Prior knowledge:
By secondary structure, the chain is of the alpha/beta class. Among the domains are: 2-131 and 433-519, Rossmann fold; 177-338, no CATH class. It contains 17 helices and 15 strands.
Amino acid sequence: MLQKLHIQNYAIIDEIEIDFSKQLNIITGETGAGKSILMGALNLILGERADTSMLMKTDKKCFIEGFFVVEKKKPVKAFLASQEFDVDDELVLRREIAANGKSRAFINDSPATLQQLKQLASLLVDLHQQFDTLELGDADFQREVLDALAGNNAMLAEYRLLYYQWQSAKKELEQLQLQKSNFNKELDYFQFLFDELNDLGLKPNELEDLDAELQVLSNAEAIKNALGKVYFELKETEQPVLQVIKQLVNQLQSYETYDSAIATLIERLRSTQIELADIASEAEHTDSKIVYDEQRIDKVNERIAAGYKMLKKHNVKTTDELLQVQQSLEERLQTVLNIDQEIINKEKNTARLLKDAEAVATNISAARKAETEPLCKKVNALLTQVGMPNARLKIDVADAALNEFGKNSIEFLFDANKSNRFEPLRKVASGGELSRLMLCIKSLVAESIDLPTMIFDEIDTGISGEAAKQVGIIMKKLAGKRQVIAITHQPQIAGKADAHFFVYKEIKGDAIKTNIRLLNQDERITAIAQMLSGEKPTAAALENAREMIMN
C-alpha cells in the first residue's frame, strides 16, 4: 500500500506530505484547488515522463517520493530481486527533475530507468482516471477476472505445466524431424564414404608399417650384401675379426697376474668377442629373413596407394586419423538408424502431453463458461446501483487454439443503453462508465486477486444522490480488503472515508500555493456540508453531513 507521498516544488505545490490510511482515503476540494496536480505528481513516480513547465521554482529541482509497504507482495519482491534492487518490506520510489529538464528515477535509492519504474508501479498502484485506456479492456485482465471467480488457479497451474512440457516436446520432435531430413539428404554420401573405408579394411598404423616394409623390400639386395659382409668379416675371412680377438686374449693371459689393468683389458676383449659373435649371428639371421619379392612389392605399393588416396580425400595424415573418420561415419549412420525410433517415441510423448493438456483446458473452459452468467448478473446489478441502470455486461467465451492460458478467447462486451448491441468494452464505453464498471468488477474479485492500491480519479462524474451513495458503499467494502484512494466531488462518497483529505489553495507571500490537510471529525462534517449546500452550509446540510459520516 501507499503509506506516504512527499511532493516538493511541483506546479503550485511548494512542499506537502500525505500519510495515507491503509483503507479508504478520500480527497476533496474545490475545482481548481489542485487535486489533478496531486495526480500528476503521483504519475511521475509511476513512470510517466516529466514536464519541466510544472516546476514551481526554476532554481530548485522537483522532488517526488512515494513510500510503499510491500511485506506481503511477492510479485513486487520478485521484480526487485530480478532487477537487482534492494529488497525490503518498505519500498521507496523517487523522481527528481532538475530545472534543465533532466529527470532521474530511483528505486530504494538505486538509479532506475523509467521502464523499470513503470513496471514496478503496475504491481503497486492501479490508477483509474477518466478517459484513460483502462486495463478493463485488456484481454489478459478479463481472463484473470473470470479465472479468479471460477476458482481456476489450481487447474491453471496444472495446465501450464502440461502446456510448457508439450511445447518443449513438440520443439524437440520438430528438431528431430529436421535432423532426420538433413541426415536423409547426406545419408547416401556418408554410406559411400563409410563403405570405401570399411572395404579398405585398414588396421591401426598399417600404412606407416607398409611404408617401412616397402623401404626394406625396395633395398633388399643392398641390405643383404651389407649384412653378408658384416658376417663374413667377423667369421669367414682368412683372418676373421673374432679369431684375431681370441688370439689377442691368449697373448695377454700370460701376463694377467702381473698387472690388474691387463686383467681388465682381457675381460673387455672377451666381452667384445662375445658381443661381436652375437652381432655376426644376428646379421646372418636378418640376412636369411630378407627376400627380394617383386610380387610383394607390387602388392604393398597398391595397398599404400589406396590408403594414401583416402588420406588425401579426408584431409588427414595418419592411418589412425583415417580410422577415426571411419568411426565417425559409422556413428552418423547409426544415428540415422536410431533417429526413427526416437521420433516414434517423441511423437507418442508429444501426443500424450497434448491430450492431457486439452483435457485440463476443457475443464478450465467449462468453469469459465459456467461463471460468465453469474458474474454478469452481479455486475449488472451493481451497475444499476452506481447509476447505470441501462448498462449491461456480457462475456463471450469462445473456443480458440491451445495457448498458455487454455483454449479460449475471452471478450467483455458492453451495451450502455439496452440496445442489445453488445460491443467490446474498449470500443464503446466512456471513461466514466469504464471506471464505474471497473469498480464493480474489482469489488467482486478483491478476495480472489491480489489487487494493488486502487486510485480512482473522479469516477463519480455524471452521478449523484443514491448512485453516488452506492459507489461509496462499494468503495468502502473494497477498501476493507485493499487500500483505496479516491478523488471525488460527491458528499455521499466522501462520507465513507477512513481518512478524508482536503485540498485547498492558500496565499503565501505573493504566491498562490496548493496545500492539503487531513480533516478531523468536525472539519469533515463541515467539508461535506459545504459539498451539499455551498460555502455557508445550512443546519440541515450539517446534520445531513453528520448522518453521512456516522452511517
